[in-house]
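Please check this:
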Amino acid sequence: MPQPWSESDAQAFVEIYAAHGVPGDIALRTYSARLLGRDPALVMHGGGNTSVKTTVRDVFGAEVEVLCVKGSGWDLATIEPEGHPAVRLEPLRALRSLRALSDEAMVNAQRQNLMETAAPNPSVETLLHAFLPHKFVDHTHSVAVCAMVDQPNAEAMAREIWGGRVGVVPYIMPGFSLAKAAAEAFEQDRSVEGLILARHGVFSFGDTARQSYERMLSLVETAARHLGRASPSYASIALPGPVAPAPAIMGDALAGLRGALARAGAASGVATRWILDRRSNAEIERLLSDPLLEELARRGVSTPDHVLRTKGWPVVLPPAPREGPLAGWLEEADRRLNAFAEDYRAYFARNDARSAVPKTMLDPLPRLVAIPGLGLVGVGKSSGEAAVAADIGEAWAATVLRAEAVGRFEPIGEADLFDLEYWSLEQAKLGKGAEKPLARHVVVVTGGAGTIGLATARAFAAEGAEIALLDLDTASVRSAAAAVSSRALGLSCDVTDPASVPSAFARVCETFGGVDVVVSNAGAALTGAMADIADERLRASFELNFFAHQGVAREAVRLMRLQGNGGALLFNVSKQAVNPGPDFGAYGTSKAALLALVRQYALEHGGDGIRVNAVNADRIRSGLLTDEMITTRSAARGVSEAGYMSGNLLGLEVRAEDVAQAFVASARLMRTTGAVLTVDGGAVPAMMR
């Protein structure tokens, strides 16, 4: 439900920002913009825009009337005062006298009149805000409103639902022409509370931030009430549909889909690694069970600017199998993804042919995948981008259901869709920054809550990777994940439990779509002379330091082969594997066995494009090498503690961060496998030979 206006919260914004020199009307604009932006039924991921008309002083100290309007790159949910850059208002209003204005000239005029030259570009709908007389103006793409206006008779339906409370504007692409049409619609009846834009969204306005905000909620509530009267059970009508696959099969299906996207990307000459985000709820399941799903999907997006995030339509795959082999389903996924790419190329060719200036085609892969029984899957270059696509997919499903309940879901047509998708002013919203080296890669780190595991996760995250941490203690691993990034995944997993490892990897696949790099790091150092150590203690060492790595590696390789896109399997071995120390036999022998395992996996899976390497580290302060153990090992070697920790050619203590960088380097060595990278400062006895 939309959050009601709180006078105490609004006043708190005024007081907090006043301490930083922000005027009260800008503070209130910030408060109400956030209220709108934090409701996904109104605004999603940079959508919508807001403004306030006020005055500021120029360099001469003169009062200047300005429009403070949402700037490009800002999200209403988290906007700050600087997210509404000030533009001189009178020059903007003067533009209305023109008969026509190109997009380039419009942007240039807006930038020329910014009070701060370093400010972001004002919204593409700046002139619409400027041409309206009200102090506060709000614009959203409400799901309920879009359901009403994504109709063949959108304008007539709008007048029927809202009556004289609103002006109605036919669909016009955002920019100068829409701004003029909106102003004319308002001037036909200056008593209206807002404007309904056919196949687009809703504007509200008022003399105060509260009035404009509450008018927005009222207009949206009117649409919601109409929907409720028309079909109170639009999402609860049960339709027979496929049953969701078991969790293990679901993880495999997503990894397989990720592989199919890689193959489709390779066939189209574009990127082959993608991150996925699966969503399922009652409304999604209801829509995906509809016999008309494929036809509904091809009708388009619920509001025009969503095409930037999801393309014009989702690809629909057959239901995922509940159990058994996936080969047949994946063959059909390949066929449909390639067909989608062909359809997209044809769509581009048809519409580019009528363009005055030829366009450069974007990649032809889908950003939203509909799979009955499994859900809607967002596709992106990162987990954040995939989540945006999935969020918009949820809103699309909700809009389609509501629109079909009251009529026919009919958003903008293909030509208008293309014009929005390839509009330079909209494309500028997405940014074109270079990707980091390990972007699009999913990295799993076992022992992730430990010192080396956490340092490794942070190092991979800094290279752009998506991170999943596995460790025994739930609270610790979730805390570690939160310390890495807001999107990192922390999962409880006992790597010595044969059932726990596949379950954890299935969760990783559900979250990100698959696995690209696995750092098998979990381990423990058990001490004691070989002749004296109890059999159960030796077996416990092998369970954790050898067999657990085997279980992790087996599951990782299975998923990597299913994806068919190669990968990297990295092991934290130890210098003990080649340079054993006294009274450390249980640890050293199990690590020596692990080093043999590394080489065996490298030997057997090079043909799958899976690189398998080891890192041999020595004397890293951690939960494994505790202060107590440092004291014991120093005494065993007859040196001081400081001498023990820096007893290498460089005379430096090796840190967890050094080990982490070694894992990152190994993951990026695309033509190296079966190698051992030593991180010990130069320990001669441990040198490989």
Notes: The first strand starts at residue 49 and ends at 57. The first helix runs from residue 7 to 18. The chain has three domains: 7-230, 247-427, 442-625+657-679.
